[in-house]
Amino acid sequence: MSSKMGRPKLDNPKSERLYIRVTPEEKLQIYDFAKRTGYTLLELLYKGIESVKK
């Protein structure tokens, strides 16, 4: 038999979820901004956190 197949285990898996509630207009603004800038939603969140830390 062959060894186990599949993805390798991660040292720090992203297993937690974060849910936020926004208005339909806010959602459109967020998705539009992400599309225009080429960032993912998670990248935008990280950049926002870094901006507030400064």
Describe the structure.
- The structure is a single chain.
- With 54 residues, the chain is mainly α.
- It is built from 2 helices and no strands.
- The protein has helices at residues 24-37, 41-53.
- The mean pLDDT is 91.
Radius of gyration: 17 Å
Biggest sheet, open or closed, and with what strands and sense? Answer: none
Number of strands: 0
First-residue to last-residue Cα separation: 55 Å
The mean pLDDT is 91
* Secondary structure category: mainly alpha
Low-confidence stretches: none
DSSP helical segment count: 2
Residues in helices, as a percent range: 40-55%
Q: N-to-C SSE series?
A: HH
Query: Hey, roughly how much beta strand do the residues contain?
Result: under 5%
Can you tell me the overall shape?
elongated
Outline the secondary-structure elements:
Layout: H1 24-37, H2 41-53
Keywords:
54 residues
Condensed summary:
The chain is an all-alpha fold. The protein has helices at 24-37, 41-53. 0% of the residues are buried.
